[in-house]
Amino acid sequence: MSMLDSIFGFVGKDFVICAADSTNARSVVVMKDDLDKIKVLDDHKILAMAGEVNSIADLSEYVQKNVMLYSLRTSISLSTAAVANFMRGVIAKAIRSRGGAFQTNMILAGYDEADGPSVYFLDYLGTLHKLNYTAQGLAPLFVMSTMDRHWKEGMDVDEAIQLVKMCISEVRKRVLVQQFKYTVKIVDKDGIRVLDVE
Questions:
Q1: Whose CB has fewer CB within 10 Å in the chain, the N or C terminal residue?
Q2: Element housing 117 (H / E)
């Protein structure tokens, strides 16, 4: 599985924020530099993915369509926790039935009226954890210490943007394959929006 992607996300006061590099690179070749690795699942949930492009496309579309189908059938929107557990089941079933996993690691982020903002770590083996902040791909090697030091409970949007900038700076400073562009999305009670942090 490719580890040249960098994604990370964390919880703020009343929002969740995710960032992902926009580079599609394998080995020393950059094939694309405007890939959006943060997929919108519904009005209040996003899924950041690192890994093989075909696995990212297959899994994100499958989850997105099933979340939408459930909402249409029941008129109930799934919570972020419910989507995380559904995804974990999909991954576990794929490992056992097809003889191979989806080659992708993920961060699920969302905002629920009842529970507020939340971030879930999922890997290609179906490991699932709810965390305050997390990273996948290359990013954990460089940004976890930054988030350990600077993340705090109840961060406002301006503080969160500064932390995102610090994390992006750390990755850019240390990764050989340059990741010039990043997509940053925030989810709160008003929905999902893209932030310009450059």
A1: C
A2: strand 116-122
